[in-house]
Design goal:
Layout (H helix, E strand, L loop, with lengths): L3 H21 L3 H26 L8 H19 L4 E3 L2 E3 L5 H23 L5 H20 L9 E2 L14 H24 L1 H11 L1 H6 L4 H27 L1 E2 L6 H14 L6 H17 L5 H15 L3 H7 L7
Antiparallel strand pairs: 1-2, 3-4
C-alpha cells in the first residue's frame, strides 16, 4: 500500500506533468483538458470541505459555481461593451482583470452560501439534500429567464480576462494560473483539516451532542464550512467561465452538483487529493469514452458502482488501504 503523504505529493506533480508534456509535444488541446480537470478539481475541493469534513451532502453547490461564472460573465460583458453596470442607484464599471473578478466571485458566492446555509442547516439528512437542490433549481430557472444576460442562450465573452504579467490566451499560462489557485485551495483545505476548527467540525459531523457539551455550536461550525466551501466553488466557476469564455444557466444545473459529488466519491470522500484524482479520472473518461460512444456515462456509472461497492475510500483509499469517513 502507498502512504497518503506520497499520494498528496505525487498527484499534483502528475497533474503538472501532463500539460508540460503536451507543451513539448505541441498538443494545446491536452493542456485545455488538464486545465478543465484542474478547475473541476478546485470546485470539488470546495465541496469536499463541506462534504468530507462537515458531512454536508449538498446537491446545490452548482449555485456557487454558477454565481462565480456569472460574476465573471457580467463584469467582462460590461467591460467589452464599454457599458456601466447598474445595481439600483449604484453604478459600476466592468472589468477584465482576473484578480478583481475572482474577488467579486468569492464575495458573491460566500454571501449566497451564508444565506442558503443559514436556511438549509435548519434541516438535516435527506431534507438538507432536497432544500439545497431546491435552491439550485431556483437559481437555474432565474438564469434562464434573465434575458439581459442571454437567458437560456447564455453569454459569450470574446476575449479571455487578463492576469498581470501573463498572456492568459496562451493555454499553458492559463493552466499555470488555475494550477496555482488549486494548490492554494488544497493548502487551505489541509490547514483547515488540522486546525481546531477542522477538528471541531469533524466532531460535529460525528457526534454533534458532544460538541454542544463543550460549548461549541455545531450549526455555526457547519455554516462556516459551508460558506468557505461555497466561496472556493464560486472561484472555480469564475475560472471555468474564463476557460470557455462562455456562461450559461447549465452552470446552475443539479447535474453539475451531482458531478461534483461523483468526483469526490471516485477520488475519496474526505481525502485531500480525492477531488483532484476524481476530476482527472472524470475528464479522462469523458474524453476517451466520449470519443467512442455518446453513452459514455454508462461506463462512468459502472466505475462509480465498483468504487461504491468495493472501494469505500475511493481511489485514494484503495491505494492507501484505508476506508474513507462515513458521511
Amino acid at each position: 500500500m502507498i502512504g497518503e503523504r506520497w499520494i498528496n505529493l505525487a498527484v499534483p506533480l502528475a497533474l503538472l506533468a501532463v500539460p508540460l508534456y503536451a507543451l513539448m509535444a505541441d498538443e494545446p488541446f491536452t493542456i485545455t483538458l488538464a486545465t478543465r480537470a484542474t478547475i473541476l478539481a478546485l470546485a470539488a475541493v470546495g465541496l469536499n470541505i463541506a462534504l468530507g469534513i462537515g458531512g454536508l451532502v449538498s446537491l446545490g453547490h452548482a449555485v456557487f459555481f454558477g454565481l462565480g461564472g456569472y460574476a465573471m460573465g457580467i463584469l467582462a460583458f460590461h467591460a467589452q461593451n464599454y457599458s456601466p453596470l447598474e445595481i439600483g442607484p449604484l453604478t459600476f464599471a466592468g472589468t477584465k482583470s482576473m484578480p478583481v473578478i475572482w474577488l467579486v466571485a468569492v464575495i458573491v458566492s460566500a454571501m449566497a452560501a451564508l444565506l442558503i446555509g443559514a436556511l438549509s442547516l435548519r434541516t438535516s439528512g435527506v431534507y438538507f439534500i432536497m432544500i439545497t437542490l431546491a435552491f439550485g433549481q431556483m437559481f437555474y430557472y432565474f438564469a434562464i429567464s434573465w434575458s439581459a444576460y442571454g437567458g437560456e442562450d447564455g453569454l459569450s465573452i470574446y476575449v479571455r480576462n487578463g492576469f498581470p504579467g501573463l498572456n492568459t490566451l496562451v493555454p499553458i499560462q492559463f493552466f499555470a494560473v488555475c494550477f496555482v489557485v488549486l494548490c492554494l485551495a488544497l493548502a487551505l483545505n489541509a490547514m483547515l483539516r488540522a486546525s481546531p476548527f477542522g477538528l471541531a467540525l469533524n466532531a460535529a459531523r460525528q457526534v454533534p451532542q458532544r460538541v454542544e457539551t463543550v460549548g461549541l455550536n455545531p450549526m455555526r461550525l457547519k455554516l462556516m464550512a459551508f460558506v468557505i466551501s461555497g466561496a472556493i466553488t464560486g472561484l472555480a466557476g469564475a475560472l471555468f467561465a474564463d476557460l470557455n469564455r462562455f456562461v450559461s444557466p447549465s452552470m446552475f444545473s443539479w447535474q453539475l452538483s451531482g458531478e461534483l459529488i461523483i468526483l469526490i466519491v471516485i477520488g475519496g470522500v474526505g481525502r485531500l487529493m480525492g477531488p483532484v484524482v476524481g476530476a482527472c479520472l472524470f475528464v479522462a473518461l469523458e474524453h476517451w469514452l466520449g470519443g467512442l460512444t455518446d453513452f459514455w456515462h454508462v461506463w462512468l456509472g459502472v466505475v462509480l458502482l465498483g468504487i461504491v461497492l468495493f472501494a469505500r475510500g475511493g481511489v485514494v483509499g484503495l491505494l492507501t488501504g484505508k476506508a474513507g469517513p462515513h458521511v
